[in-house]
Amino acid sequence: MPPDSDAADRAKETLLSRQNISSGAPWEPIVGYSRAVRMGNTISVSGTTATGPDGKIVGVGDAQAQTVQTIKNIEAALMQAGASLKDVVRTRIYVTNIAEWEKVGRAHGEFFGAIRPATSMVEVSKLIAAEMLVEIEADAVVSE
Fold this sequence. Notes:
- This protein is an alpha+beta fold.
- The protein has four helices and six strands, in the order αβαββαβαββ.
- The protein has helices at about 5-15, 25-30, 65-80, 100-110, and strands at about 20, 35-40, 40-50, 90-95, 120-125, 135-140.
- A six-stranded mixed β-sheet has the order 1-2-3-6-4-5, covered by helices on one side.
- Strand 4 (about 90-95), helix 4 and strand 5 (about 120-125) form a beta-alpha-beta unit.
- Helix 3 (about 65-80) runs parallel beside helix 4.
- The longest helix has 18 residues, at about 65-80.
- The radius of gyration is 17 Å and the shape is globular.
- The chain starts with a helix and ends with a strand.
- The model has no long low-confidence stretch (mean pLDDT about 90).
C-alpha cells in the first residue's frame, strides 16, 4: 500500500510551521521583525534589551540590572513560543562597555548557570538608544 502522502505533507508542514511572536512594540512592524520566531522545535529570539512594560529602559546606567531585565524579556518571549530558559542553547551578548563584562556575566549566570548555553559577549560602539547598555539574542530548542 502506498504511503499516505497527504499525512506526510501535513506532518512536514507541522514540523516547519512558523509562529511569529510579538512583544507589541510599535517598531516591530515598521522595522519588519518579530520578538521571536518558532519554526518547528527551534526558537530564535531577536536582540532584546531591558525595556520595561512602560516602554522605558529598566536600570539606566546599570549593566547588571539591564541584563536581568533583558533575560526576563527573553523568558517572556520564550514562554509565548512554548519554551523556557532551560531550552536555550545559545546566547549572544552585546555590551557597550566590555569593562562591565563581569557584571553582565554574573547576571547571565544567575539565569543560565545550570543551563550553560553556548554564548559570546562582544563590545559594540552603541545600541539603538544611548541608555541601552546590553542587548542579548537567544536560540532555544524544545522537544516536541
